[in-house]
Amino acid sequence: PAWAENVRATADIPEVSQDDMAWADAVIFGSPTRYGNVTAQLKQFIDTLGGMWQAGQLADKVYSGFTSSATAHGGQESTLLALYNTIHHFGGILVTPGYTDPTKFVDGNPYGT
User: Fold this and answer.
1) Which CATH superfamily is domain 19-107 in?
2) Where does the Flavodoxin-like domain start and stop, copy by copy (predicted)?
3) pTM to 2 decimal places
């Protein structure tokens, strides 16, 4: 089946780790929208970062996010806002496109892509 081929094709792509979060100056989180929120898999990874958060290692980094859904009103904005709540707790510097580009007036989402 197609999903099995995708598993084989992406087997060598490394997953993000806490070490990646430690060295990165900027982090862009991406997740499909699930019921107006990020996926359980992304939330599970974020939940592993508690020690880094407590040590202040996630603060003062630049963060942004992107998401997708199957429909135009599938919860993209609420997904990004939920993700950004976490970034605020990290003490991160949130960078979003706002309405700085004319294309943002077309898709109507100043929170991310």
Assistant:
1) Flavodoxin domain (3.40.50.360)
2) 1-113
3) 0.85
Q: Give the bridge partners for 28, in sequence order.
A: 64
Domain limits of the chain? 19-107
User: For 1, what's the count of Cα atoms within 13 Å in the CB-facing half-sphere?
Assistant: 2
- 50: pLDDT strictly greater than 90: yes
Phi, psi of 67 (to 5 degrees): -150, 170
**3-class DSSP state for residue 88?**
helix
Q: Which of 89, 77, 7, 10 is nearest to 38 (CA)?
A: 77
In the sheet that holds 93-94, the strands lie side by side as 26-32, 62-68, 93-94
